[in-house]
Amino acid sequence: MRRAPEPHSRSSLLARLDTPLWRGVLIAAALAVSGAFLLETFYFLRDATLPQWLLALLAIAWGVGGVMLLFTLASYLVEQFPATWKRRLIPILFVGPAVAVVVGYLALPTLRTLIASFYDANGQQFVGLANYVYAFSSREMLISFRNNFFFWLTFGTSFSLILGLIVAVMADRTHPVFEKIVKAIIFMPMAISMVGASVIWKFVYEFRPAGAPQIGLLNALVTAMGGDPTPWLLRQPWNNLFLVFIFVWLQTGFAMVVFSAAIKNVPADILEAGRIDGANEVQVFFHITLPTIKGTVLTVGTTIVLGTLKIFDVVQSMTGGNYGTQVIANVQYTQMFRQFNFGRASAVAIVLLLVVLPIMLYNLRDFSKRTEAF
Amino acid sequence: MSSAAPTRSLSRTGQKSHVKPGVIVVYAILIFLTFIWITPTIGLLISSVRPADAVSTSGWWTVLTNPGEAEFTLDNYRIALGIETGGRKYANVNLLSALVNTIAVAVPSTIIPILIAAAAAYGFAWIRFPGRRWLFILIVGLMSVPLQVSLIPVLRDYIKVGLNGTYLGVWLAHTGFGLPLAVYLLYNYVSTIPRDIFESAFIDGATHFTIFTRLILPLSTPALASFAVFQFLWTWNDLLVALVFLSADAGTQVLTQRLLGLMGSFGQDWHLLTAGAFISMILPLTVFFLLQRYFVRGLTAGSVKQ
Structure pTM? Predict the structure, then answer.
């Protein structure tokens, strides 16, 4: 009898507090507190002197947990609003973070780089097109254009695509176990960084003067056959091809896997019909298989073309852009971090953007055609 | 019996007719290519376990051609990881700390964009709101923008707010650069989930958040996993973003940065470089082979659709 009113009054107090408004206020407060907490922990983690592995572990938990916490709290907050507001806020909750990140890291920076490309090294003085004059006429940029378009784009893309196609088509006709092993080996370099691959290939291209024992595979082969050892990475302009081959080594597996999946999707009855009509395997490939997977070849080709235009790691770690192997992305990096010329680096970046612009526009057109009903 | 036999043999010859011609040539070409593809990596592995003088005086293949004289050691790995100093020259190689840093960079750089992208994919696929199409077109349009274009402005902001050289800065950068592709791929998957699966949850009064975390995320596991492998390999193997946003001091450097540094300063110490390169390859190769199925599915998701 005596106890009864107490829980009752407590629950009524809770009930009074449990309105959408109050819940919203509480969640907002929780959001603010956790935001402040995350910020403080960020400063702590940045400046802390803990054992490194512990710091790394804490950082991972902080980063991943922080994003989950903020998202969960924010969605509770949104749920407290009346229906009309909720309808407006929910899209922001789900799509907002992605749009904000993409705008902040890609859209706005692109505009700012465009503006910076018309200013001097420190971004103080408007210099008009001076940086673009540099970007289109300096020696290193002209070498870069030659290398990017002729060596990287032409050879890198066509070698990767052709080798990928060859392996995909041929492996399809072999014993399933053999096919699996071949594909795994060709695909494996995909998991290796370009820097790691550079160590591997630098070792293959290693040069020792004639007479000394060659520890690089390529020169060992050449000398074993009676030739003179060659400093492969110094021989202009062919050294570009040796760099391109590293890229091909990394990319062929990617092309092969996608082509292989596409080839297995080519309807068997069409192939059979072609064979019954007397077409040989080469004809079947060029008249049936290839036209059917044309779209896939185009997609993979686009990806690899983009990769060749942006190529950086291989050149940076193999030659640093010396000996006539300079590429656009490496010029930008050098201008930014060795010359500290933000204006020129920005102009070079914009040149890179102009080069990939057709691919971007094609992507967009293709997308809006496919999603009329979106 | 007598009627079944001919049909069977007919179908068998029918199958074999497109296997037979040049089948030896096919095997020969494939074996040749596979041999070329794997030899450099095998050379790296063998060199990484040979003593330092052996690596610099004879080719790694002598281990195979002359196995009697072959010696093996794990010293290269001990020196590269900084467990053993190997003399003053190698005192600051210490790839172990770079390995820890790389994990600290790559794991959140994989999980954060997936969370954000999955939420966005759900929003674009299943919530109607004005401007939906235009925002999605914006994201698709930014998919092929080279990240080089963003580096300078983002770096300037980072310096202003103190994000430069921090894990958070790199995570956010990887998130920003990987997000368009992630949203696009996950949208393709999430939009194909039949609506009736979560219709009843809606009728029961479930919120979008509940549906997203309880239904959409579990149902999208294959797509999430395939993108996760993708993004993990990408962030683990990245050099450019690390060079720009992580400071040059050894405390925060990742493996690719350290390896690049080793190539510069220890260019002739092949025992060290090969061990270092292999250390940087172990984890991505493991992840890659364990989750290869998902990875391949992710690769072929968009491009093989007919």
Answer: 0.88
